[in-house]
Design brief:
- The chain is 37% helix and 28% strand.
- By secondary structure, the chain is of the alpha+beta class.
- It folds into two domains: 5-70 and 96-176 and 268-345, FAD/NAD(P)-binding domain (3-Layer(bba) Sandwich); 183-265 and 353-385, 2-Layer Sandwich (D-Amino Acid Oxidase, Chain A, domain 2).
- The relative contact order is 0.17.
- It binds adenosine-5-diphosphoribose and P-hydroxybenzoic acid (PHB).
- P-hydroxybenzoic acid (PHB) binds next to strand 15.
């Protein structure tokens, strides 16, 4: 098979890029290792920036997003008894959209056949070849048969563990990493949320986040040491911990119920540079990871994909190589800002095991400053709603 752009990975990044390229009349195919049910079984964060919502709207794939998404004009930082509201809408004129990122993947997946976007699932042993040439190709195995796709570009949207990043020679690359000494234990439950807006809480017992998927489905998190096992966390134990950490007002409004999902995810900050090598471009988790504090993962994948699509369109329409050459620097400029925001919100809202009284005093001082300064609140709000693309 021959195509213009071969995309590895049918997560949100790969599917969004596939749709955007198809809408510009560019030939592409998406190659995914798992089956579609497996891709949809991954539960991810639930806050979309306006730019991400805008891309879905541009594709005309935002019907469900508009019908079911919850526009939020603010969120809260809690510290013990204190609650600081960040008036995102008042400070930036924009809202975020609370909508499960898994649902974005579903919307993109469901629309693929009608839009002529070919997605090959169950593709094993995907490997990239010839990325330093103008004629790279992919190989994989499906139903026992070897397959080959020739392309002008390959885009790696294959997440943190995929093969594309590893195809870039280490001599041409640089990695930046910070692993955090805790994970987030998340639960999903069909109970009404305890608050109309999200609450990120820093409590002496640890971090907690109250989030939601709808008026009747809640998503909560607490931070736990990486040594914890999810089997040791009964639903009651999680609810007790949430009630203790979220602050008195939220605690009084928590509705408990059986969890429908419960898992522990580690936190990591990671950036791989460059995001292009020869004819291979990287987008999303293939190139970078943010801790979930601030929900930037999918939003960053969406801005990468936007830059990649713009560069590819220029290449195929106007034989403009400069846009491709500039992709990595352009994407990384925004990546690093989101990395900084996710890291700083993580530092502000978690108790690190290595921290002493000085670090805690710094957190309190920063929260005092945020509570009293419109400038500080604006800086948080404009990052939360999403920096310009
Ligand atoms: N071959 C083919 N596909 C692969 C391979 C492989 N060897 N390895 C991984 N993949 C697929 C995965 O199965 C997955 O479906 O690539 C896809 C990567 O998807 P994600 O991990 O969701 O990464 P991305 O699309 O970049 O998502 C960006 O969205 O939901 C958020 O938190 C999530 O930050 C992430 C963001
Ligand atoms: C979520 O709803 O899952 C969520 C929301 C905000 C975050 C992280 C996760 O910062």
């Amino acid at each position: 098979m021959k195509t213009q752009v071969a995309i590895i990975g049918a997560g949100p990044a790969g599917l969004l890029l596939g749709h955007l390229l198809r809408s510009e009349g560019i030939d592409c195919v998406v190659i995914e290792r798992q089956n579609s049910d497996h891709v949809l079984s991954r539960i991810r964060a639930g806050v979309l920036e306006q730019g991400t919502v805008g891309l879905m709207a541009r594709l005309g794939l935002d019907d469900r997003l508009k019908a079911e998404g919850l526009p939020h004009g603010g969120f809260n930082l809690a510290d013990g008894e204190r609650l600081i509201r960040i008036d995102v809408e008042g400070l930036t004129g924009q809202q975020v959209m609370v909508y499960g990122q898994t649902e974005i993947t579903r919307d993109l997946m469901d629309a693929a056949p009608a839009r002529g976007l070919q997605v090959v699932y169950n593709a094993l042993d995907v490997a990239v070849h010839g990325i330093e040439s103008d004629a790279p190709w992919l190989t994989y195995r499906r139903d026992g048969a070897e397959q080959r796709i020739d392309a002008r570009f390959i885009v790696g949207c294959d997440g943190f563990h995929g093969p594309s990043r590893k195809a870039i020679p280490t001599s041409a690359a640089r990695e930046f990493e910070r692993v955090y000494p805790f994970g987030w234990l998340g639960i999903l439950a069909d109970v009404p949320p305890c608050n109309q807006e999200l609450i990120y809480a820093n409590h002496e017992r640890g971090f907690a986040l109250a989030s939601m998927r709808s008026e009747t489905r809640s998503r909560y998190y607490i931070d736990v040491p990486l040594t914890e096992r999810v089997e040791d966390w009964s639903d009651d134990r999680v609810w007790d911990e949430l009630a203790a950490r979220l602050g008195p007002e939220a605690a009084a409004n928590i509705t408990r119920g059986p969890s429908i999902e419960k898992s522990i995810a580690p936190l990591r900050s990671y950036v791989f540079e460059p995001m292009r090598h020869g004819s291979l471009l990287l987008c999303g988790d293939a190139a970078h990871i943010v801790p979930p504090t601030g929900a930037k993962g999918l939003n960053l994948a969406a801005s990468d994909v936007h830059y990649a699509c713009t560069a590819l369109v220029r290449f195929f329409r106007a034989a403009d190589n400069d846009a491709i050459a500039g992709y990595s620097a352009k994407a990384l400029a925004r990546v690093w800002k989101s990395e900084r925001f996710s890291w700083s919100l993580t530092k502000l809202m978690h108790r690190f095991p290595e921290d002493g009284p000085f670090e805690r005093a710094m957190q309190v001082a920063e929260l005092d400053y945020i509570a009293s300064s419109k400038a500080a609140q604006t800086a948080i709000a404009e990052n939360y709603v999403g920096l310009p693309v």
